[in-house]
Amino acid sequence: MTGTERAAPPAAANAEQSTGAGPLAGLRVLELGQLIAGPLASRMFADFGAEVIKVEPPENRAGKGVAGGDPLRKWRKLHPDDPSGTSLWWSVQARNKQSVTADLRSPEGQEIVRRLAARADLVIENFRPGALEKWGLGYETLRALNPGLILVRISGYGQDGPYRDRPGFGAIAESMGGIRYVTGFPDRPPVRPNLSIGDSLAALHAVIGALMAVHHRERTGAGQVVDVALYESVFNMMESSLPEFDRYGVVRERTGTNLTGIVPSNTYPTADGRHIVIGGNGDSIFRRLMHAIGRADLAEDPGLSSNAGRAARGPEVDAAIAAWTSTQGLEAALAVMAQADVPSGKIYSAADWGDDPQFQARGMIDHGRLADGSELAIPAVVPKLSATPGGTRWLGPALGEHTDQVLAELGYGPDEIAALRARGAI
Questions:
Q1: In order of start, what are the domains of the chain with their CATH numbers?
Q2: In this predicted structure, what is the pLDDT of residue 9?
Q3: What span, in angstroms and rounded, lies between the C-alpha atoms of 136 and 103?
Q4: Rounded to an integer, what distance in angstroms lies between the CA atom of residue 392 and that of residue 247?
């Protein structure tokens, strides 16, 4: 790893210690982003043991009265007993990270970042292209200080191209990348899931690219830039949509609850006003499904023995399944499907996760402790590694909680730190 060895940061006051150091212990990550894509990428590094230092703008930076910290600190539902109004999303998004305040628009803040980058393995940022260069923090500058540095850049449209300078949000990326076009019902406008899918997909691509760059550096010693565009991360998930259009002129459209060309795979109503999802699209699975719902005629129909035949008669197959599910309560229908070994499930909300035996058996509900001492249920770390699992060591820190500690490690004295704070640089 680049830079000199340094002691692990002390656990925050609200720490929930996990066992083991994690597979990424010793890897140093400097996070310069905010909100979703960049911070989610660095959170995944932190979850598996990397030391992640998050740089945030200070309160009232440079005396301009600007609110400090990552805006995500105030997004979504707020903790009712927290006078700071800190978002619960922040508790998860910033878990296992250290928070350092520095004004990137000030020379002093830029110098802090240069010192941090000189001893980092990765820098993850999701500002508009050109912002780092404007602040004297571009890759060429940082690489001169640290030749093995890997700079992960996440933006709406990438670091070049005619759209480079446009503001890029996840919602726009989802639209441009194609996922919005195919989501919803054919007789209604495209819809979005009530999640930031475009940002999350970009974060996953950033982590994949960063780990590949780390592997390359271990063999060659050379760093590089990982350029992640939100719209390209969505576009990468569009399966065969492009070759289908290129060869046949077919545009994949919105199909509501089913999946184009794969039958049966749909959502069906139950007698108690709920819904069951059934995936019976394997040939042998389809036969078991049809026998289970009393439609042996369809199970043995030669025209339905393969997916191609079923796709041609999709409405007929779905109607047969829906006619049966409409006579069954949800739990009864699930029991029949389980007995027939047919993939099925109910549609979960957040209220369903905690009581589900599979979630419990897999330890998917973790718990952390907030600054006020209360316990908070949070998603556990995935994927699960048998020898070096990740975990939650502490929840999202207070703004600037680690500033003094980290600056002291960089060589700043107490008087220098006090002067920087007085000038609004930290």
A1: 28-236+364-422 (3.40.50.10540), 265-348 (3.30.1540.10)
A2: 34
A3: 13
A4: 48
- Enumerate residue ranges in the chain where pLDDT < 50: 1-19, 62
Supply the pLDDT for residue 372.
Answer: 85
Question: Distance from CA of residue 423 to its chain's centroid?
Answer: 36
Return the closest-CA partner of residue 371 out of 34, 84, 8: 84
Cα–Cα distance list, 223 to 148, 248, 249 (Å): 4, 42, 42
CB 392 within 8 A of CB 95: yes
**Cα–Cα distance for residue pair 296/322, rounded to 1 Å:** 16
In whole angstroms, give the CA distance from residue 74 to residue 86: 6
pLDDT score for 164: 97
The answer to whether the bond into 264 is cis (omega within 30° of 0) is yes
Q: Per the structure block, which two tokens stand in for 204?
A: 């996953």
The reported pTM is: 0.91
Q: Looking up tokens 């110098």, which residue turns up?
A: 111
Q: How far is CA 182 from CA 190, 256, 262, 289, in A?
A: 7, 9, 15, 28
Given a contact cutoff of 8 angstroms between Cβ atoms, the answer to whether 54 and 94 are in contact is: yes
What pLDDT was estimated at residue 174? 97
How many angstroms separate the CA atoms of 140 and 426, rounded?
25
Q: Which residues are catalytic?
A: 199
The predicted pLDDT at position 371 comes to 87
Distance CA 400, CA 246 (A): 52
From residue 28, how far is each of 97, 202, 252 by CA, in Å?
11, 21, 43
284, 307 in Cβ contact below 8 A?
A: no
Long-range CB pairs of 353-362 (<8 Å, 24+ gap) are none
Chain CA centroid to CA 400, Å:
24
